[in-house]
Amino acid sequence: MSTPEKIPMTADGYNHLRSEVEQLKSVERPAIIRAISEAREHGDLSENAEYHAARERQSFVEGRVAELEEKIRLAEVIDISELSGKTVKFGATIVLADEDTNEESTYQILGADEADINKGRLSITSPLSRALIGKTVGDSVEVTTPGGSKSYEIISVKFL
Question: What is the value of pTM for the model shown?
Fold first, then answer.
């Protein structure tokens, strides 16, 4: 049996997961228990939509708690402030130039749960991140996107 892979994330990402678990356990669970209790008071459960909705919500919340607790258990918290170098790796902030348009984009490579493309935060598991890992300034990478193949040149690599 293989050992589960560690999940890289920043301290902020780790704290966000812990906060979500706490919210689900301390706020959502009690609210669901109250909703189920109130729905039971209405009688026949077989035709009680409120009861079934509360049970579905309970199932979702318990699944989410289990998922988050597993991610927390496997978390490898990486302090980006201690990283440096010229090679692209987790935590790096990269400036890329589209080789077709010369348009520049800035991205930071973070954990999957921290990704937000609108904020320039790429998941370590994204195709672009996987293409960039191990590369240095001046290297070109080709990435297959839903819109076709794109080529980028790495302009800079920083650790902020």
Answer: 0.82
